[in-house]
Amino acid sequence: MRLERAGFASEIQETEVTFGERLAAAPEGCWVLDDGAGRLYGYLCAEFWSLDAAAPAARFARDHGAAALHRLDGEEVYVSSMVVDPATRGTGWGRRLFRDAVSAMFARHSSLRSAILIVHPEWQAARRIYHSEGFAEIGAVPDYFAAHDKRLPAIVMRRSGVSCADENRDL
Predict the structure, then answer these.
(1) pLDDT at 168
(2) Could you tell me which residues come within 8 angstroms of residue 157 by beta carbon, excluding any fewer than 6 positions away?
(3) Please, which of 6, 84, 152, 159 could form a disulfide with 145 given CB 3.0 to 4.6 Å?
(4) Mean pLDDT throughout 53-61?
(5) 63 confidence band (pLDDT: 50, 70, 90)
(6) Angle at CA of residue 126, ends 40 and 16, nearest 5°
């Protein structure tokens, strides 16, 4: 929760209950970046969903119960949350965590066919990483993020086919 609070504005932080449910329902989708001595510098959480080409907005509800959608034999990995400690931003560790976690999930789960995520429209660095890893914008979830006195959409991005690292190196 330290990383959640450090990485996200209070209006978009998920709760401890949500994280507990996610860990219980989808432990194979939870990855951490640590220093080997127990200090966490980042995490990525994901769920495996049945593939729905339409990507309905209701699936992306904040604080949704992971157990309701997660299927170990799902065809799509939903990257539900990722953050790196602000002290490590710009070092490449976020990209490495993202690429390695998604690649490992594809390598371990042969049923996966695509990956999907949502991102804040103003998070340009994150969007650049996702674009460079083969994700394309496929839609938006209206009024998802609170921003001062207005609401902003969440950009929905998907990558079909191979894992992120397949084009860059052998697994």
Answers:
(1) 40
(2) 116, 117, 118, 119, 127, 130, 131, 135, 136, 137, 138
(3) 152
(4) 90
(5) confident
(6) 45
Instruction: Record the tokens describing residue 38, joined without a space.
Output: 């127990």
Q: What is the pLDDT of residue 143?
A: 92
The first and second tokens of residue 49, run together, are 């969903």
CB of 77 within 8 A of CB of 112?
yes
Assign 3-class secondary structure to the chain: CHHHHHHCCHHHCCCHHHHHHHHHHCHHHEEEEECCCCCEEEEEEEEEECCCCCCCHHHHCCCCCHHHHCCCCCCEEEEEEEEECHHHCCCCHHHHHHHHHHHHHHHHCCCCCEEEEEECCCCHHHHHHHHHCCCEEEEEEEEEEEECCEEEEEEEEEEECCCHHHHCCCC
Domains of the chain: 2-165 (3.40.630.30)
Measured between alpha carbons, how far is residue 16 from residues 60, 67, 69 in Å? 18, 15, 19
Which tokens sit at 166? 């397949």
CA distance linking residue 13 with residue 37, whole number of Å = 26
Give pLDDT tens digits for 68-119: 889 999 999 999 999 888 888 888 888 999 999 999 999 999 999 999 999 9
